[in-house]
Amino acid sequence: MATARGFGVDIGGSGIKGCPVDIDGGVLAEERMRIPTPQPSTPSAVADAVAEIVEKFSWTGPVGITLPCVIKDGTALTAANIDKGWIGTDAQELFAERLGRTRDDVLVLNDADAAGTAEMRSGAGAGHRGLVVVLTFGTGIGSAMFIDGKLVPNTEFGHIEVDGHDAEKQAAASVKDDLELTYEEWAPRVSNYIQALEKFLWPDLIIAGGGVSKKGHKWIPRLETRTPVVAAALRNDAGIVGAATAAATRHND
């Protein structure tokens, strides 16, 4: 029996990456292609980059695409770490037109929601009930919340106020890099952030994702939190896998 395949593209503040995905296995089916996010990251420039990736693999089926934005009915309502021109843009229509597809063949979703969906389906959250929060540490901090495995879309926990500042300005992975912090120096910032989040939520599990999750052993054990924290199993591929899965699943429903 042929393996079900989909295609996912994950748009971040610094890079855009995508490739075909093995939907059943919840893993990348080919080596992903990554290109730097255009600067400025306008809708038109990003759409061209997405098309370049999709065309590289000669992919003709449905495509799932993530954006670091709140997404409702295919439209971006916020823009974090990406050009403000996205706000109010019908991203689903934009990508469909640029990729030469119908609107129904393109699904656009929040990047952290996509990553979280993949982790809950075939990663660190598989089989977990109760309240699970997925936090993606990258250019900013993305969040996804699940209750008994069901997504509560478009949470923005990376933007809660911590010590008078936007949380991601204090604890994102980009802050670690910009300030040249060691994992030992960065971990207290993450602890402080999660402790602030724990004032409002009582999660049963927190899954830490993003590129820094592959070095999770260097900082996750240093965290001082009430909630158990584990590294994302799919690491930085979770957004691609989640986007592809969501698009393929919707198309097959």
Automatic annotation (TrEMBL):
Keywords: Kinase, Transferase. The keyword Transferase applies. It comes from the Bacteria. One of its GO terms (molecular function) is kinase activity. InterPro entries: ATPase_NBD (IPR043129), ROK (IPR000600). NCBIfam families: PolPhglucPhase. Belongs to the ROK (NagC/XylR) family. This is Polyphosphate glucokinase. It comes from Saccharopolyspora shandongensis.
